[in-house]
Amino acid sequence: MKPLLETRNLVMRFGGVTAVNEVDFLLEEGELRCLIGPNGAGKSTFFKCLTGQYIPTAGEILFRGKPITGLNSHDIARLGVGIKTQVPNVFNGLSVQENIWVSARRGRTPRMTARIVEEAMARVGIADLAARAVGELAHGQRQLVELAIVLAAEPALILLDEPAAGMTHEETERLAAIIREINRTQALIVVEHDMQFVRMIARKVTVFHQGAVLVEDDVEAVMRDARVRDVYLGKRVAA
Amino acid sequence: MVPRFLLGTLATTAAGIAITILIPMVADAFEVMQYTLYVVLGIYTLSLAYIWGLGGILCFGQGAFFGLGGYTFAIAAINMNETTVPFLMAIFIAATVAAALGYFMFYGRLSDVYLGVVTLVFTLIIWKLINSTAGPEYMIGTARLGGFNGIPSVPPLNVPGDPSRMFDPVEVFYIAAFFLIATYLLLKFIQATRFGRLSVAVKENEVRASLLGYDVRMIKLLVFTIGGAIAGLGGALYAAYQSFIDPNAFSLEMSAKVLIWVMAGGVGTFVGPLLACFGLQALSIWISTVPWANSLLVLGGILCFVVLLLPKGLLPGLADLSTWLMARARRRTPPEVILPAPEGKRA
Question: Residues of B154-167 as b/e, b for ≥16 C-beta within 10 angstroms?
């Protein structure tokens, strides 16, 4: 079977800075992968290459065997790649329900859309916020709204860039449960700094360092890895 | 929410129809012609209120499409000796030019600032160009472009299919008012459709819209083209009602004042910009009769005032003010007065 996502020798340079350096990455259908690495390791840039926000300098990206390198963001999204970005990208002036409606409406009848909007809100647990304007919500709540937006499009692959940032402990635990639940039907790549959180959800972890893949192994092995500790200066990994 | 939305639209439409019927009853034919100008500028205002308010496209050269509509109508009407086809041509040409310009701007992914600059320069280039066509060699068919003198003797609107039966000024006023109300209703309808809601989403956050699989460029291009068509409609009526068009339609002033009307009235609303257009245009005309005052200076002053005190514009600003006053009144009211609210009616 073809992998869901594959990058071959992916490079992204900005002037003299190489943000993503010859990354070979493989994700199977239905997999849940965590992507960790210190700030500036190239995780978000990697995501932006995958979603067409950046056109890679070199290399290839394949989605279900089909090359998607350099396609427009909306074309990649239509193939079934959804992303929750690091800084929440939501429609601040619209209500929670309208935000999710925009996502759910593409390619669907109004009746189906209404059902999917309800489901997405229930799944993430924000049904009580439906009529609120997204702009006035707390950061953690906005993260959940964006997650519901992404879910409503029903993509085959979901990229989450620091989904737990700004969340309370309870929200983080709920998020972990939601992610495990999503993973029953869809593949995910999750970028996260919080190692406790990574432990809650991950099996296999890929560590980025200076734009390249440093280690790729299951979560416990990665935690024990001396190089990973060095990269993080022993701060959070040791905890 | 839906009934309230409809209610506001219906109330506005009813008010518009009532005013349309009332004006020719109280005003003489000459005054009715003056009011036609307001109606025509109202259509022009709606074109920008739409693309800016619902599409987030800040166009500094909306006058280009207004002027193109006017010139197309004038040139075609002089050549064809009737006005129905020229009227449709005016809308079509304005829309086509908007689509062509929009294609380069949106598919070239120009940022908002450059979009403003390009649209402004676009209208000023046309202004320069038309201004320099004063010589007799500049003809399109039988129509002389006339340069800075403009094109006089534009045929007045005639009954479709019967060029010998021309509309009188009061009838032209009714026609213009009909198109203003129809444009308003059309835009309200667009606002409620899937496309209208998506364009608002694009205005709110382009990145998110494209990450959800929407082609942002196409949505903006369509909004911009519709706006161009509406401005062209306004321009055609402008040339028709006064039997005249000159290059000032393409001037900086023409494009700047509509921005001020929309901003003062409230970006994102239709009635607000219309009220601001009528009020500020009346003010400009009145000030031009005062020898020591300059209408542009006053308009600039009003703009500063609005930006500082009513940053959202007149209509949203008034709504905020009334909410604030109501909240204040509620706080000041002794509790026993508000407590007896019957249960279940507070929601």
Answer: bbbbbeeeeeeeeb
Classify burial at B297, counting beta carbons within 10 Å of its beta carbon; exposed 0-12, middle 13-18, buried 19 or more: exposed
Q: Which residue is closest to B213 within chain A, CA to CA?
A: A74
Chain B residue with Cα closest to A131? B1
- Residues of chain A contacting B, Cβ within 8 Å: 51, 53, 72-74, 77-78, 82-83, 85, 89-94, 98, 101-103, 105-106, 149, 153
Domain extent listing, chain B:
2-250, 259-331
Listed residue (B81, B64, B65, B71) closest to B138, CA to CA: B71
pLDDT digits (tens, 9 = 90+) for B139-161: 999 999 999 999 999 999 999 98
CB nearest to A51's CB, from B198, B205, B211: B211
Q: Say whether A153 and B212 touch across the interface (CB within 8 A).
A: yes
Give pLDDT tens digits for A115-128.
999 999 999 999 99
d(CA A211, CA A7): 14
The average pLDDT across B291-298 equals 84
Which of B234, B267, B246 is CA-nearest to residue B152? B246
Closest CA to B70 of B126, B9, B4, B12: B126
A1-80+155-239 — its CATH code?
Answer: 3.40.50.300
